[in-house]
Amino acid sequence: MVPTAFAADQYLELEPPKTLTGRGYGYNSVSREFVLRQCVQVGAAVVDGSGASGDEFKFSSVVSNSQLADEMNLAVNTKFSASMGLVSANASSKVDFFQSTKTNFNTHTILAKYHNVEPMKFTAGDINLKPEYLAMIGTPAFRQQCGDYVLIGEQKGRWFFGTVQLSVRDTATESKLAASGVIGVEYATMNAEVGVSTINKLKQASSTQDLEIHVTSSGSNSASLSVDQFLQQVQSFPGQNGPKQTFKLMAVPYEDIVANWPVGNPLAPITSEQKLTKLAEAAWGLTALIDDSDFMIQNAKLFALGTTPAKRDARVAFIKARRTYYQTQLADMRNRARDCDVDWAGKPACESLYNTWKDFEDFVVGEYDQFPMRYVSECYASRDVGDNIQTKLRTALATTNGQFSNTKGDREMGGGPVNFSANLTFKSDHTGGDPLDTRKLLSTLKIRMEESKADHTTFETTLKTPVFDLAGPTPGETLAQCSYKGTGVKAETVSPDPAVCAGLKLINKKAYEDCVEGMQNLKYHGMLSGKTGEDPRTETFNKNSRGVLTSMKCTVDSNASNDTSMIGCQSIDLRSVPLDLVNRQDVVADKWVAPKQIDVKKLKPAIKPSMQRSNALRKVMTSKSGFAAKASRCAEGLVSVAGQCLPKLKKSR
User: Fold this and answer.
1) Cα–Cα distance between 253 and 345 in angstroms, integer?
2) Side-chain half-sphere of 428: how many Cα atoms within 13 Å?
3) What distance lies between CA 212 and its chain's CA centroid?
4) pTM of the predicted model over 0.85
5) Where does the source fall among the domains of life (predicted)?
């Protein structure tokens, strides 16, 4: 009794070609080409098998070719051939679409897919080789004319695949995407949940010419001119009536299915689909690493490489070295693995390559852990917040009337004159913890009014006011990656005029020198002073302004015997105040040190990688299982193989 073969790798799932094909036609696994000839006799009867069928409509964020292949449900041998650059010239439009869609972590890709396909229909009854081909068995002529596989199953349906891709080459757009929630503010990776609103946000955040749109479907191929046209196509396709076309094919070796094939004359080599998939994913992983390395090298200004030119140059040099390594490994893999899908068992290099790259997820995650973070915040953009600060200070000053402290003399200014001074400084509002996590900029405004006669009555106040919040709402951008550098502002500091020390010069030289040094050590971002005339009331001081402080309007005296309730300021004006920010990821990148040995399969990061980032990378790179329905009971003539209902084979190897 001849045993029945249940091995899943004896059934070959294929993407349809552009040429004529169908049940009974041949396939040459060596040349990876379909044969335009039926060398077998098959009846018209068919039986439904199980497999991917039914209706599905979905948007997906895609960051790797492996993920794209899974979402498109591409056949294993197509995945492998595509990853090794071996796709046949007569590949289907679906495969052409896949080949032309280049995905990696630095390109934001959204896939819109729809399919409505029938179950796979298999040939029912015996399959016999036509008499004229029996004599060719065992000769090269047979493979040339008939191939080594025969198609036994065909699945038809309608489908639509379309991508919107955005390769962002400026931080402003990336910041807009982060602010709108399309990407994460830390890692600049597309969020998992995507749909029409996400596509519209890509459109709003970028220039139209930056969006690349690509479409293929059963019945037609087209390139949409706009996002709106693309979405219209996506949403209207499921409701349209269109021709059903071949979606997937199933083939088996002639010797495993043909009833009149001679015993002991195998023709088709055995393959290992699971291991082929691993090699394909490794090849795509290396390809993505090469593409991402090229993007970083060409757009270094978009990445956190360190705060000094030396640090940034060293990181770029490392990326270039790793890029060379990826290219060498990929070339070696493609050279040694070219025929692994033709004859796995007969090629020792295939098993060796599989053992080398079977844990490719660990390799790729380890490599990306060494890659610099991408900027999603415009920390180094010119940003004048003078108007914001001015508004905050005016609000704070409005509460000062009657709140000044009487620090000297009685409470009556006595009709003036009044000496006025104000000093303004900025610093980050750091109250402990990591200074890089400080979000608020704090201003300190000291105001002093002194009667210039009698008992020198003095009123003073110090206002400490938060004037800018990096975590606050900033329309169209995010500053989540930013932190204050130095004092937080780029405004030059000014010091009091050392001329105030002149009176000490003739009295005590040491006291004079100490006074001058003391004046120079006093640093302010803004200074303002002035002196009123007799009987002042509310005065505007603007003639002796230095730094960012240009004028203030204050009430310095009144007719009352107690001026306390009237003393206060109502207005303040500032020059421009540029923020001084640093990207926090650059500060972290300063700690990076290149590994001593880089020609290895697993790098040891000098900086402990973020588990959040590593887990996110691993999640999107892990291969998904196919979505074939699990068969609980198969129709007559079919057997359950790897959860699918497939035709029973004549014999096993």
Assistant:
1) 16
2) 23
3) 17
4) no
5) Bacteria
